[in-house]
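Hi R.,

Here's the chain you asked about this morning:
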Amino acid sequence: MRLGHVFLEEETKVMKMQRATSRTSRKSNLISGAWGGLAVAILTLLLAGPAFAGTAKQVTRGDKTFFEIDGELFPALEPLGPPPIPKDNPQRVDAEGWPLEDDPKVKLGKLLFFEPALSGDGSVSCQTCHVQGAGWALNSAISRSYPGQSHWRNSQSVVNAAYMSKLFWDGHTASLETQAPSAAKGLAGNGKHDMMSARLTVIPEYVEMFTEAFGSIRNPMKDSWRAISAYERTLTSTDSPIDQYLRGDKDALDESQVRGMDLFNGKARCIMCHNGKLASDEKFYNLGLPRQPLFSEIAKNQIGFRSQNYGAGLPEEMFRKTKSDLGLYHRTHNHEDAGLFRTQPLRFIEYTPPYYHNGVMDDLFEVVEFYNDGGGEDYILEDMGFSTKTDRLRKLNLTSDEMDDLVAFLEGFSGTEILTSVPELPKPPVRVSIK
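And the predicted structure, written out as tokens:
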């Protein structure tokens, strides 16, 4: 956020005005809808089971605040400070602990983030799936993949990824340093260690930059992941209205957002999973999300998916019949983990639609409506004969005004848009053929 990024503040204001207009339009459509639909909605509310009502009890333990729901304590939201920096990959920071942009490691990492040489055929880079104009994610439901293959999960933003301890939707890496090679060598990049290393070491500019950052270029791939990680630690968003409010600026949120915050911490039950500094407990749940047709109904995607299932060691009867992304099950092979995915952090979320692991929801109001209905049907039950859907979800009975307030609060998790200049990449020396 602090490191030479171009902040389009006017565009950000316009986007927020457009979203406010959209909320007003949605409310108008609800009011002007058919009376028959209204009658059905009222009847549904009357027949619905009990929902959590009121504001959750606030509890203090030492210097920490919690909210009590269903007899459990959940950490209150907190503002973000500087990102943690691992001891085995140190980088230069300012007096407050924020990474510095003039660190040779960060400069190298930025180039490598945009460098397609770190892939199988030299056509895919980190920014292929993490586009700065799309919140450093991807504005399509399903992520891109290596040419000729198919992906089945939504691309997540790298903004604030430096704070996380479980990366990817199934949490299979614990740090940026292990995330980078997993992406470059996996379904997205299909890179081979020796080939990527050779491409970098023949470019004089890279040899010089690796030497300046790490003392040599003896371990170009390990140091590539370390440099990319150092750069990604500069991609932090900590100036959101919610951050400002939590730091004491009570004018940072408007009245609608304050009402939405009360709902978030109470009646809407959001705080149960979206808590702490990340607005994510980094735990795994099955929400009963709808299937993504782009994934479940396109043959090419299913072929690639089943091949990956086979490679992950799933038994034949499973990888041949299931059309569903089994989430955490791919890592653990425990049936109770089927269909579970890590809680999505809410920070910077205004810039990163569509949402969830399969990109099945296009906007935040659709997300809130989904939770208001108590989640969806569990496709794991259909595919595997048992359900793993979390029991935390239930009908909330939020009114349309309450849903608008909650959406307004969720938009408060996003600060200034983060954009940067695209670097000019060094090129390998030209080979001259002598006849």
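Confidence is low (pLDDT under 50) at residues 1-20, 27-52.

Let me know if you need anything else.
M.
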